[in-house]
Fold these 3 entries.
Entry 1:
Amino acid sequence: MKTILIVDDVEFNIDLLTQILEDNYQILVAKDGAEAVTRTQQSKPDLILMDIAMPVMDGYEATQIIRKTFETLPIIGLSSHAMAGDAEKARAAGCNDYLTKPVDEDLLIKKIREYLG
């Protein structure tokens, strides 16, 4: 079973994403970017759903650090505070894709399948 790391500082978002994905994927959770870096190094997930705006370390910085070691790991940036240019900034940081929250369940599953097969 493929593993997805959900990185988000809001419990509601973690719960929602877990409910959508837990039947088909093993779920790991990190609550900030620093924890995401550590969890990725320890667990080597198959895909990361990375919230962009978080305390301690944001998703941009965490993605840049993760990319140094895991060059091909799919990372999908997520943000509920989508502003013009955020998708480009996320891609520049190393995200493969970018979705706005609340996430459309069908689109999320489609994107994950694109990256994980």
Entry 2:
Amino acid sequence: MTDQPTPATASRSPMIAMLLPWILIAHFLWNLLTPAHEYPMRTEQVLTMTFDAMMLAGLIGLRQAMPKLMFSIALVAGIGLFALRLTSDAGWWTGHFVYFLPPR
């Protein structure tokens, strides 16, 4: 009887608990190291901020199913995604640390 998963752990996949932190970390590094070249539409900006917030909430919800160090690094990366938006006006719109227009 003790072999059966409880309802709380039956729906949690270890694959998601390992993939979600890596996605957050990779997304943060991409936005930090890659320059943006154009402003997105307002709907895209709000949508990416919503996705980032939902991934951060999912990370906090799955914190027991992942290693503590990975959780800590991914938490800093998730908060860093929002911190990048506070660096400048271009950062607010693009979510990237650097923004410039390439020469034509």
Entry 3:
Amino acid sequence: MTIVHRHLTVHGRVQGVGYRWSMVQAAERLGVRGWVRNRRNGTVEAMAWGDADAVEALVAWARRGPPDAHVERVDLAESPAPDESFERFEPRETL
């Protein structure tokens, strides 16, 4: 198993449509750990850690989002290993 770390910035109509909570559910189904939060600039930011296939499946989900979202694009970057460990995938407060 290859562990990867990804930073996602999701652009489009992704706030006020249940995006964060839906991403938490998708990540939990896939066994991905990390976090997701709204940004004041209207994007959604997430950090995802886990098995490469599971993280890539979450990235594919992020490009679609929940039914009421309209994702324009997802900026994706590799991320160094986190300074903190996560037991699960959690929502965070807006930054």
